[in-house]
Design brief:
The complex is a heterotetramer, with two copies of chain A (about 450 residues) and two copies of chain B (about 425 residues). Chain A has about 450 residues and is of the alpha/beta class. Helices cover about 35% and strands about 15% of the residues of chain A. The chains are: A alpha/beta (about 450), B alpha/beta (about 425). At the C-D interface, helix 1, helix 2, helix 5, strand 2 and helix 6 of C face helix 1, helix 2, helix 3, helix 4 and helix 5 of D.
Chain lengths: ~450, ~425, ~450, ~425
């Protein structure tokens, strides 16, 4: 079912205009020996009805579960209006807004996105999105190195998501940038300040400050930011944007605020959807604006003095500056930023606050109930946002498998990345969970622990 | 490549089960999703003639990064550490040199010959023991098929370098020629172009990479793997998909220890990949051949007609591939109307303007790509609009120079935008 | 979660303007004794997240089945584009197009709908839709009686859907219109012409001519139309619109064509959806146009001579003519007509033909395979569209229940409405069914018959 | 009643399982759907103060038909066959008399008093042994609450007639006053108005009917029934919905042998009913009261402001309900600008025009209903637009008389449309 509208008469008239006998002649500059394009593994085409049937069968294989995993991708309620608006062709299928005059809708939404993200993080500026939080962290590191000019080391706490550290390393190591890991305090799950002090000096460009960290625990962000600045390094805030409805904005951390705030935008209206598309956000202080990677929308005037929006600071970008660009990124996740903008506009500051608070309260309640089960305890007793680490009296993989058999995703097994934590699982209960969902978790966990 | 985005791709990728699944849920709970991605990998291998495909990169530029990172990993794994340069033709997309730099390489530009092909002498002079690879698009950004591709690949390979294929123009040759057969070692594909996933006003895209056998160990992870267990062995979550005990699982660091690693927290832009998969199944092998044929027919027809209308063709003796370049230089000399003015005036006539001033080799250029999904009726309307603008340039140049006239705003002040940065709204003081 | 945007300041300013102290004062003309509006059975409001959860749980109770029931509501593939376009707010939430100048999109679509339906039925005119096929049949009968002026009887074959006869009777009997049923021939399942001849005379206003009839069988529509006209009565064609892609259009039945064509529009792009909303279509010959009920869109010119669309012939309608209107209908099923228009435009004449042909072929194949099972036979061997009656060697309700337990909706039990047919089920296999679906039907039917 | 249609209502009513179910599939396979409809019936009973509700009618007009048909069935079942007339106020919707005729009744119109209430003397004179019933809207089409409703109901009931409530204006009293408490015997509700299901450019709607106890046997079928089986008995398809052995099934001819019958092939506009159900659950009891309060607040505010702006209020001494009438008669006398001109000019200013020339009792009338979902900001913008039009009527009447100026077409020729019928496109000869 190719989407080609030509009639036979069209084809003939077009070939006549070109002066070719048949369509095949248009490929006559391709060396004959190369014309081996025959597709042997691509199946025959199907009509829409057949593909719809196939996809429904595939989808039916993917069972619905009661989900208590977070770990960087969070199940939140997304109002129906968000995706019904985003799915309109005007947003959905639009080209990159290079022709600004014909793209004011897309551009204004992105300008509003930048405004909201800067407001949420307390920073001066935002770009128009990056691919995701993990690759966004890498871009923040590259920015910091460009800004620092001499150092090529970045300090990163082990309390940052292992997958984020892995992605960042994949990207920045090709520019000979080294990530130095700072261990966490076994008692609190937060960055070990004594270990950090051992890295004092001016040979690193930035310290990454996660809030909340991968364990859901709240770091002492003020102290960490102050310390980084005292070493002549930048502070890169790695934040869950929803948590900022409750927590202090990175722009107010320490005496002068973090320099860059970066993170995963998915909690702001993007469905879990097997992991993507999500989007990364990146905000910064005014001084760093021209070091930002990615597209940026600016407000300006037209030739009649009327306000309008356009892509700006393109001189940073690869299509102008080529080898000297701040990054090679061009496509971003504009549609996801559009969804987030609508989500934030629908909820408002109060709605974001209530969502964050409900998520926090649910996780706190779940942890408290879980600790009522013999042998279950929280690994880190301190303040948290909406995730906690539970230590179990049995091997985590086996318990989680038993819970799965009961339709419950009981959390993320931490044994691979943090063997020192023992039988630990990372658990998250967002605002989507009801009291009876929490009870079901407890019941299923208890039963799974009691099973032989 | 802006073509029709079939609505079925959207609705089927947004089935509730796909939307609800957490990326860290066990593989056994995502067999349907994994099966789709596995099959998409297989389809893309066939289309590109490559030995392996990874769907990880989240856009073309990240695909380029993955490709060049694999080239670097390949040389390093062989202990071939002196290769510090990537060669890039001067007509290449700006992402090519930017990517090489992100991957720690120096960039060497080579020039283009008069007929639009790479200057082979320049290439021969450029290669050497310092050459890590060459980045090329074929058909090129000039809208023509690089005829000397076999000679090029021999020069680069003989020098010990690898060949990178920028898949931005894959739409032109889908089902007709395979980059693998041309001798390329690695390719990225813009699924949001060739496989028609929506652009979304600038993203998300998807930039899958395909590799020749020698780069297989270095592919970015995770990959969708298909596991056939011995008969009789019980497989959790396995199913009917392939008959017998077939199931799917993610291949990770453990399976590809030499991988360049992860580029996204999860599986790239999973939902975009599902859309591309649905599109591929709708088209099938036959449909893909027709994509290339009609994209090429449309481009050559439009080129012929615009040539007749007075516009200067950049390469009048060459076939257009899926796109072609006209130059407004003569018109500008005669009337003062630039490529930019034409672009803005096209907005008034209901057409999104083509790319202007790229590639930079051709003065006052317009790079025009109609794609296969536009009808002759639409193409004729475009030609008529371009003719009108030609006439207006002579009869009423002021009208064209001050276009657009029908959009919400008139021409915007880009210089002011960059100088007096206003990136976030602030309440009036 | 009421959808009310007022701030406290708004409320106060508005009350000040009105000169009322509180909102409650605005209800002061309501006698105090009546203010007993307290709602006791309406549950407390929920937020969208909670209602979404509730509805997902409800939906999960309604199991997906392999469906072989038709009987007036048909499972066809609807291209995704249809409802993605229809769901756009411009169509979805628009008001009735009374302000024509601001409603040209809605009006043009309905004009195109009228054009396509008139073309499909071979009639001169179409209204802009009615509620559904069954109530549409009643409206067609009322039209015929208005046109005939003296007779108040309508002849209706027993081969018309029982539920259509029931609905039509509910509506027309209040105007003292009598429905006279004509039996069907036990051998063919089509209208018994000998019995019909007994009703000859001029005391009836119309004969209803179903094509295909309820059993899926093809009636001799030319003969029936001719006969009705010979009696001075109108012929009302009751047709499945999709079948008209293959069968002769009512406008060409007999010598001069049927006078009215009416039916259920659901096969044209409307999902099964538990039975509604669907839409009725009604087309007629030119002479009857001013007798049509419902809204009609006409093409006209504006004050500058530019073509445009507007509701027309409103003098027939209740808001102008009140007690003398052709019907009380005002709301119709405009959005469904919009969907049908898009569906037909996407498929084109060729696509409709292929859909109809595939449905016919699937049902024929299913019936042939079913007859290979011992004791199963088709009740009526003649030509059919996409439904057939199968007679089983066991009580139909019990067999269907066993098939349901295997996930197959095996057909409609006819024993209530047509006991004379024995253990009969009405079966339909549209283009949505694959060869393996048909095989599954046969396997499950065979197994169900063999079970004790 | 055109108010915001919550998007969640659409997406939840379109869940795949609801969309795929055949209406003739056994009840056991549609328990979720049936549960929703059963609960909607219960909610509507409470809201209207009625003893039973049927969701069958597919629009308000069909609801009226069902209501009057039930009145007729009631009288006939008692052998009270001499009742041949339905009384309708002259301000009533045109559907009221049209419905009475469709149900085989003669229509007797009665007049309206100066204050907008029904003329009680006229009503007393009209009733008699021939009176089958009275059709009334309260709040009335004049936008005011009929104060004498208790007297009216006594007059009609004393004469042996029944009282029909036209629910078009139910939005005004949701959760405040119940028609059942006012003494009405039967009511239809426009769910596409009060319960905010989308209008779809003219339909589909839904016109549920509610009845007093004496009309219960006559309700149109099918109804959603809730069955509580004795404990221990196994019920196919039953479930957790109500705890224990609760299940739902359609009630049909067998359950209601005196029913007026079926009005649609299946269950009316099922999908519209699901949307109304979702809306009702979102609002809940508290939300419904707020609907009436804010619809009334908005109407009274707009009335006060437009009065200040110079427009003549039809009933200045009465409270507005959810809507109110202004007359442009004075403006027309002064400037020649009619209600129609104002309506067309409003289109230019971005507002959909209110209903004009209905009810016919008030010259040059505009019937304005803001609903509760419009903000003060929007209302103020509307007032500003009306003031502008007032000024334009005096300063530039030609501009207003030739409006609209910003729509795809100018004022259309309705007379030509009706005289030279063009209802289907024909290729040019």
């Amino acid at each position: 079912m190719p989407f080609i509208p030509h009639t036979e008469a069209d084809i003939q008239a077009m070939l006549d205009s070109i002066g070719a006998a048949r369509i095949g002649d248009l490929f006559d500059e391709i060396p004959a020996t190369l014309k081996t394009g025959r597709l042997s593994a691509v199946p025959a085409g199907m009509n829409e009805m057949q593909v719809a049937r196939l996809m429904s069968e595939r989808a039916a294989q993917d069972a619905p579960l009661l989900n208590f995993i977070g770990a960087g991708a969070y199940e939140h309620h997304v109002p129906a209006a968000v995706w019904q608006i985003v799915s309109r062709g005007e947003f959905y299928t639009a080209y990159t807004p290079y022709q600004a005059e014909a793209s004011q809708g897309t551009l204004q939404v992105l300008y509003e996105y930048q405004t909201m993200m800067a407001s949420l993080t307390g920073m001066d500026a935002s770009n128009a999105s990056l691919y995701d939080g993990a690759s966004g962290l890498a871009e923040a590191m590259l920015m910091a190195v460009r800004a620092h000019k001499s150092a090529r080391r970045i300090l990163i706490p082990a309390s940052v998501s292992p997958v984020y550290r892995s992605v960042a390393r994949s990207i920045v190591r090709l520019q000979n940038i080294e990530l130095v890991e700072i261990p966490f305090d076994a008692a609190t799950g937060t960055t070990d300040f004594k270990m950090l002090e051992q890295s004092a000096g001016n040979d690193f460009a930035a310290l990454v400050v996660p809030q909340p960290n991968f364990f859901g625990a709240l770091e002492n962000v003020d102290e960490l930011t102050q310390w980084a600045h005292a070493q002549g390094a930048l502070a890169i805030a790695l934040v869950n944007p929803l948590s900022l409805a409750l927590l202090k904005a990175p722009g107010r951390w320490g005496a002068s605020g973090a320099d860059i705030a970066v993170g995963e935008g998915q909690p702001l209206g993007i469905p879990l959807a097997n992991g993507g598309p999500y989007f990364g956000f990146l905000c910064c202080k005014q001084a760093l604006v021209r070091q930002m990677p990615g597209r940026i929308v600016g407000r300006t005037l037209d030739m009649e003095g009327k306000p309008g929006f356009t892509l700006t600071l393109q001189a940073r970008e690869q299509h102008i500056r080529r080898a000297k660009a701040t990054s090679n990124i061009c496509s971003n996740q504009g549609l996801m930023a559009t969804a987030a903008t609508i989500y934030m506009a629908l909820l408002g500051a109060d709605g974001l606050r209530r969502t964050a608070a409900a998520s926090h309260a649910n996780t706190a309640a779940l942890a408290a109930q879980a600790e009522g089960i013999q042998g279950v305890k929280r690994a880190f007793p301190g303040p948290h946002f909406h995730e906690v680490v539970l230590q179990l009296p049995a091997p985590a993989p086996r318990v989680l498998e038993k819970m799965l058999a009961q339709g419950v995703l009981g959390g993320l097994d931490l044994s691979t990345h943090y063997p020192q934590l023992g039988n630990a699982v990372l658990v998250c209960a967002t605002e989507t969970k009801t009291a009876s969902d929490l009870q079901r978790y407890i019941d299923v966990l208890r039963a799974s622990l009691n099973q032989p | 490549t802006m073509k029709y985005n079939p609505r079925a791709c959207n609705s089927l990728a947004m089935l509730p089960q796909f939307m609800a699944r957490h990326p860290l849920a066990p593989d056994s709970t995502g067999q349907g999703f994994l099966a789709c991605l596995y099959e998409l990998q297989e389809i893309l291998k066939d289309v590109t003639g490559m030995a392996g495909v990874s769907l990880v990169p989240m856009a073309g530029a990240q695909g380029e990064f993955a490709g060049i990172a694999m080239i670097r990993a390949y040389h390093e794994a062989r202990g071939d550490t002196g290769r510090t340069e990537i060669i890039v033709p001067d007509a290449a997309h700006g992402t090519n040199p930017a990517t090489a730099v992100m991957c720690g390489y120096a960039v060497k530009e080579i020039s283009t010959g008069h007929d639009g092909d790479v200057d082979l002498d320049a290439l021969r002079a450029a290669v050497g023991p310092q050459t890590a690879g060459l980045m090329l698009t074929n058909p090129s950004t000039l809208g023509i098929f690089e005829k000397n591709i076999q000679a090029i690949q021999k020069i680069v390979h003989d020098a010990g370098g690898l060949l990178y294929y920028d898949g931005a123009n894959l739409n032109a040759i889908l089902g007709k020629v395979k980059p693998g057969d041309m001798g390329f070692d690695v390719i990225h594909m813009n699924l949001h172009k060739t496989f028609s996933t929506p652009h979304g006003g600038g993203g998300p895209g998807a930039g899958a990479v395909g590799v020749a056998p020698r780069l297989l160990p270095f592919m970015p992870i995770p990959l969708a793997g298909r596991i056939c267990s011995p008969p009789g062995e019980k497989v959790h979550g396995g199913g009917k998909a392939g008959g017998g005990n077939v199931h799917y699982r993610w291949l990770t660091e453990n399976d590809l220890p030499q991988s360049i690693g992860r580029l996204s927290a999860w599986m790239g832009n999973a939902g975009v990949l599902l859309r591309a998969y649905v599109y591929a199944r709708l088209l099938g092998a036959e449909g893909m051949c027709r994509v290339a044929e009609f994209a090429t027919l449309n481009a050559n027809y439009l080129m012929a007609e615009l040539g007749r209308a007075g516009y200067t063709l950049a390469f009048p003796l060459r076939r257009a591939s899926h796109e072609f370049i006209v130059s407004a230089k003569r018109l500008k000399d005669e009337t003062g109307i630039s490529a930019m003015d034409i672009a803005k005036r096209l907005l008034d006539k209901g057409f999104h303007a083509p790319t202007t001033y790229f590639p930079m080799l051709v003065a006052e250029c317009l790079l025009i790509e109609p794609t296969e999904t536009e009808s002759k009726e639409t193409l004729d309307a475009f030609v008529a609009a371009m003719k009108e603008i030609w006439d207006e340039a002579h009869s009423a140049p002021g009208l064209v120079k001050t276009a657009p006239h029908t959009q919400p705003v008139r021409r915007l002040d880009d210089v002011k935008a960059a100088r007096e940065l206003d990136l976030v709204w602030k309440p009036a003081a």
